[in-house]
Amino acid sequence: MARPKDDWRRWIAENLLLGNPPEAIRDAMPRDEFTAEEAAAEVSAALASPYVQGGSRIANRLRKREWTLTVYGRLNRMRANGGTIERRERLSRDEFFEQYYFQNRPVIITGMMKAWPACTKWDFGYFRERCGDQEVEVQFGRESDENYEINGPKHKKLMRFRDYLDMVEGAGTTNDFYMTANNASRNREALDVLWQDIDPVTEYLDADSPDKGFFWLGPAGTKTPYHHDLTNNFMAQVMGRKQIKMVPLHDTAYVYNNLHCYSEVDASAVDYERFPLMRKAQVLECTLAPGELLFIPIGWWHYVEGLDATVTMSFTNFLRYNDFASDYTTYQHL
Fold first, then answer.
1. At residue 255, does pLDDT exceed 80?
2. Which domain of life is it from (predicted)?
């Protein structure tokens, strides 16, 4: 079935604004829908359109901004530790904010969770004893939907916490179900008693903030696909290990951001034929172990995979400004 002509015209305009050569656009149009003369006429009409010409001026401004970001990327690669995520022991407040938070650089901080009762008490038996009968919210059916993160609200299910724990323990490796930050509102109340086992990291976080963090629990194999957050984040690993892949904010042009804060790229098996620009992206990798804090700077793309059954806390209540979401408007398709 042929695509409507207006669909093709949108496609032509988009490719012209992306800077693709007119002759390549013309030659890519299917001959069962357009003769060579018709294809040439459509491309010529688009080039002559004042709407496309106006759009080209905006596209040039965007290309200038993308060039600016590539400068930051090249400079970052020149740093001695530009290709790694540093591990630092008990960073001071000033060091953390000056060297990482304000400079939009990730870091793994060790030693800050030693006083957490959670690090010695938490296991599945403890969870059952403390709040096993509470009703919690979990995402299910993730493996049957390639857009499970975007469609997260459609996958919510309520169940007893102890029943969910039984599933996690018996699951082996799967991404089909996961208790994530998207399930936070109900679970924060249901699992409130567990927050008694967490000491606020007051060196970096505001203990008086109403934001007390998010609880993540899932089996080995859980995946959070490439996305960026609208705030700076701490990921505090309590149980199990997680593998993280991160792409800097300045490489956004390479990660195929198609909607809101999501990427089309599957970080677990990148299809470079489909996504060739990913070869230009700088990918930093680490394995986060229990007792470690990972700082994820705002705008950094990150993919997370559970190597074991895991429990993670995440926090956004930093002592410095973190309200970058208030002027964010790009929720639609890009």
1. yes
2. Bacteria
